[in-house]
Amino acid sequence: MYQLTNSLPYLLNRVGVRMGELFSRRIAGYDVTLPMYRVMAALWEQGDQRLGDLAGMTSIEMSTLSRLIGTMKRKGLVSRTRLKDNARTVAINLTAKGKSLVEELIPIAVHFETVAVREFTTKGVTDLKTTLAEIYVSLGTLEPEIAEAEAQRRASKRQA
Amino acid sequence: MYQLTNSLPYLLNRVGVRMGELFSRRIAGYDVTLPMYRVMAALWEQGDQRLGDLAGMTSIEMSTLSRLIGTMKRKGLVSRTRLKDNARTVAINLTAKGKSLVEELIPIAVHFETVAVREFTTKGVTDLKTTLAEIYVSLGTLEPEIAEAEAQRRASKRQA
DNA sequence: GAACAATATTTGCATTTGCAAATGAAAGTC
DNA sequence: GACTTTCATTTGCAAATGCAAATATTGTTC
């Protein structure tokens, strides 16, 4: 007998949402939203990214990210520069202000993680992370069957 | 040296977003969104829920859920009835149509989970689920310090 | 039992989101 | 070198979201 509340997607989503919501509230005083933090932390780890790369890294949809980068630029947190050699791409970077802000926030994120995994051993934590990464990869397997479902959907829509 | 991409929140969010996005696309042909599926699956597990309970169970914010239930009612998937004995609460239930639809979708969700954890042993999977549930609980510990951050925020706002 | 506090849900409003189409720029192709 | 194709990003538009305020109902206190 299936139970939503014992399913992996449910448990994952629940903990993800909760953590995000708590972290959002925690950093609201810095005038940053959670997506902004994600962008800054991603750029802190790897600067000079193109929009598409950053979208992949942050799991933020590209059009959403494009606009988000716009508001972050207005806030002086990031820079967006069209490249001279390939002007259809754009290089996104942290500004000094963005860098120093994210360096204030990262310790808070670290603290959150520490609290979250307080009950587990170091090995338990690395195993968990490996597991999560492996699941992410396994999900790729689903693409073909989803593409087929979508193709059928498009076909029946053309009909109508 | 901190790395966003090796942090627990990042890994959790990433796999959650991916799975959600794939599942959304998979079920789009049934004219259901992911949040709708979540509501139906929650009601399938436990019917006759009040809005607040359902919000807690699905991790959907209450005002969002209120409106979502509205559109689902219009689609004939759920019923919403004010109680006679306590008319400030509302009882939400699946309709026959909603029930049969969710019973079509659950096997798809089960399949997704199967694929996601294909690499792991049964024990590995139960352990993972237990871990996720424990982390969820641990996060509660953070509430007090967040409340304090929010209080300070409110105080400085009153100033301004 | 009238006034006030507490609880549950809904709504107003501004912002965010995401798909699909549009734009801008570089790469073939002939 | 004008042409279509492909690639990367942005924008139009309608829908979804979330906070805070409003509403509706019950509970409490005097």
Written description of the protein model:
Two copies of one chain form a homodimer. Chain A has seven helices and two strands, in the order ααααββααα. Chain A has 160 residues and is mainly alpha-helical. Chain A has two domains: 4-116, Winged helix-like DNA-binding domain superfamily/Winged helix DNA-binding domain (Arc Repressor Mutant, subunit A, Orthogonal Bundle); 120-160, no CATH class. In chain A, strands 1-2 form a two-stranded antiparallel ribbon. In chain A, a hairpin with a 7-residue loop joins β1 and β2 (90-94). The model of chain A has no long low-confidence stretch (mean pLDDT 94). At the A-B interface, α1, α2, α5, α6 and α7 of A face α1, α2, α5, α6 and α7 of B. The structure holds a DNA duplex (30 and 30 nucleotides).
Question: What percent of the residues of chain A sit in helical stretches (DSSP H or I)?
Answer: 55-70%
Measure the end-to-end span of chain A. Answer: 38 Å
Order of helices and strands of chain A: HHHHEEHHH
Instruction: Please tally the β strands of chain A and state the result.
Output: 2
How large is the count of helical segments of chain A? 7
Task: Examine the secondary-structure arrangement and name the CATH architecture of the largest domain in chain A.
Answer: Orthogonal Bundle
CATH topology tier name of the largest domain in chain A: Arc Repressor Mutant, subunit A
What is the topology, as strand order, of the major beta sheet of chain A? Answer: 1-2
Shape of chain A: globular
Output mean pLDDT of chain A.
Answer: 94
How much of the sequence lies in strands of chain A comes to 5-15%
Name the biggest interface: A-B, 65 and 65 residues
